[in-house]
Design a protein that fits this description.
- This protein is α+β, with helices and mostly antiparallel strands.
- The chain has helices at 3-34, 49-59, 64-67, 82-94, 148-160, 170-204, 222-232, 240-252, 257-267, 271-278, 289-300, 302-311, 315-329, and strands spanning 39-46, 72-78, 96-102, 117-122, 141-147, 205-208, 211-214.
- It has 13 helices and seven strands.
- The strands form two sheets. The protein has a five-stranded mixed β-sheet.
- The chain has two domains: 3-188, Beta Polymerase, domain 2 (2-Layer Sandwich), CATH 3.30.460; 216-329, no CATH class.
- The chain is elongated and about 90 Å long.
């Protein structure tokens, strides 16, 4: 095909590929959230015509619109190597996968290079019944899945412009081997750290005589505090950034988790009433984990309340605190 003919068909298909890419970003994000897989980003791009034309010339394609499979390219960047398989599993479940390539497995042990998992997919035929996927069932897309460190290496490698080992000056090769190995080791170490962190959390909440108990002998840190809040307020929304602020307050006022738990037990019978009082103008209002914790501290710790009132002067809240402090004494 001549360049003008290719450009005409490119423009005809481009709108459909743009629609496919945007819809698949939404779908992939939904699948990741449903599976509770944390991720850095989900993005898509449509191959520019000049890049498309150059690839046709380089690869000598006879039927480029069928043979070029990354016209619509999507990229999922996750945090941990373990999640690569979990993401691959749901891609196989949710799409018609035409091809699956593990670029890491294709590397020789002594080679540096581009590490990523690639999937050539089409949407399942039943998806085409939805208006936003109508007429898209025959279009392919490539989904790349990488960890954030794989992505860092790919970006740096792209900047250095070395596509093959043979292109690298001999004096640079050893350094590139070392850097590639370091990033691969770091990926593995971050996964180990995450696994150990999860094991630590599980060890803090145990079954004892048919009752779930928290191990208060642990040191106070962000992980132990968040695990305690999940244990004490399992039905409340969590926010690790706000938990970090609460941790600073625990440290500042020298409050241990065991001391706080005694305050919680003493106060918990009043908490539903306090929440109703706080949100009397908003029936759907609910305190988050840290909000519950701060109410408990305000009612039970004088130094904490004084510090809060210096920072946030609120006479209405002070009146409520006094009201419920009186109730606690009865």
């Amino acid at each position: 095909m001549e360049r003008e003919d290719l450009l005409k068909q490119y423009k005809n298909d481009n709108e459909s590929y743009c629609r496919l890419g945007g819809n698949l970003v939404y779908a992939l994000t939904k699948f990741l959230n449903d599976k509770k897989i944390s991720y850095h980003s989900v993005t898509h791009r449509i191959k520019e015509f000049d890049s498309f034309f150059e690839k046709i010339d380089r690869k000598k394609y006879d039927n480029p619109f069928d043979e070029i499979e990354d016209f619509c390219g999507l990229r999922i960047i996750c945090y941990y190597p373990h999640d690569l398989k979990r993401i691959g599993d749901f891609i196989h479940d949710e799409f018609d996968v035409l091809e699956s390539i593990d670029k890491t497995a294709n590397l020789d042990p002594d080679r540096f290079g581009y590490r990523s998992n690639h999937y050539i997919v089409k949407i399942k035929k039943e998806w085409a019944n939805a208006p936003n996927y109508r007429d898209l069932e025959e279009f392919k897309a490539e989904i790349q899945v990488r960890t954030i460190l794989m992505h860092a290496w790919a970006d740096i490698e792209h900047k250095l412009a070395y596509k093959k080992q043979e292109q690298v000056p001999t004096e640079f090769r050893r350094k590139l081997y070392q850097l590639s190995a370091l990033l691969e080791i770091a990926d593995s170490q971050f996964q180990d750290l995450k696994n150990e962190k999860e094991d630590l959390k599980k060890s803090l909440v145990k079954e004892k005589e048919g009752e779930t108990v928290f191990d208060f002998s642990t040191e106070l840190n962000l992980d132990s505090l968040q695990t305690y809040l999940d244990f004490a307020f399992p039905d409340r929304e969590r926010d690790k950034e706000v938990t970090a602020q609460l941790l600073d307050e625990f440290i500042k006022y020298k409050i241990s988790l065991e001391e706080f738990d005694k305050m919680r037990i003493k106060t918990e019978k009043l908490l539903p009433e306090i929440e109703l009082d706080l949100f009397k103008n908003n029936p759907n209002g609910k305190l988050m984990q840290v909000g519950y914790a701060r109410v408990i501290l305000d009612l039970n710790c004088d130094s904490y309340l004084e510090g809060r009132l210096k920072k946030y002067s609120n006479s209405m809240w002070l009146n409520l605190v006094e009201k419920y402090r009186d109730k606690l004494k009865k």
